[in-house]
Give the backbone structure.
Amino acid sequence: MRILVCGGAGFIGSAFVHQRVAAGDDVRVLDALTYAGREENLDGLDVDLVIGRIEDPGAVEQAAADVEAIVNFAAETHVDRSILDAQAFVTTNAVGTFTLLEEARRRGVRYVQVSTDEVYGSIDDGAFTEQHPLEPSSPYSASKAGADLMVLAAHHTYGQDVVIARGSNCYGPRQFPEKLIPIMVLNAIHGGPLPVYGDGQQVRTWLHVDDFASGIHAVLEHGAAGQAYNVGGAKEKVNLDVVSRIVDLTDASPSQVKHVEDRLGHDRRYALDSSKLRQLAGWAPRVDFDEGGLESTVHWYRDHEWWWRPLVETAEYRAYYRRVYDRDPDF
Ligand code: DAU
């Protein structure tokens, strides 16, 4: 299959590209190579890379020539950044998705939107099914929910062949050091403070990036047009427990754990019911968070300083870190 993977040089997109190339698909990547998308993530892979933005119709048209499907990973994804400034989230996530949908319509090809559990909002008990209304709480999740609604409208209005994959919190190699796990791992290894927001009792369900990538492929292959599918992790964890486990795995000191000011509007808990996709395609996560998943991720960061060091030394990263944590990074 000839697939256009938008955002294919990012964390989740590149995991998907690695899998599809190994499976023999013909992959073209469209990526703006902003702070989180990197050519290095595609090292050793035989893919065409078109550098451009998804909200640029010219770049999209060029990248989409002759493809049979478009899968969209390209997004601004970090809640904390969206709280500081949501402009790029609206542009990339909402306008970018619309631009890709228009191209998919012109070409008559299948469109897969990579989305998030955060579009449903926070849930105290139980798990969200795809029937739950969208009740996003952050500027980030609102921009993703808006994109999901545009995708569903494209099916309803024009009969477009679209599907949505909504994932839970991902972890694994090549995640930009702004999300919980890479931030904690790098600080733990280098003796810095581990900044836990608020009481640290928030709950997230962890999904290895390779499992999310295989779930997205199941949605691409088997999803019914106009449908959304939850692609949830199997391990529900309290943030503080994840941080303690990282302390153990890195031989850091528990005294490095520091409670800091809570995130504004912090969602307490996310949880997805993924039975719709399991029944449709037999998809299930394979990597266990406790049995090797987190540990191998810690090893990956230890062994790949050449990968993360240049990222954390940029002026942009240091300025971001200072704004969120009120200090310079220690790694
Ligand atoms: O649930 C899926 C979503 O997961 C994705 O759609 C988002 O793109 C992705 O960023 C992630 O969102 P979260 O806000 O849940 O992920 P993050 O890694 O930023 O934070 C995870 C939890 O850890 C959250 O409760 C906030 C907390 N946290 C995070 C950071 C960065 C801390 O306590 N300290 C930190 O320094």
Observations:
- Residues 77-79, 116-118, 168-169, 179-180, 183, 195-197, 202, 204, 239, 263, 270 surround DAU (CB under 6 Å).
- The longest helix spans residues 87-107.
- Residues 2-171+207-231 form a domain with the Rossmann fold fold (CATH 3.40.50.720).
- The chain has twelve helices and twelve strands.
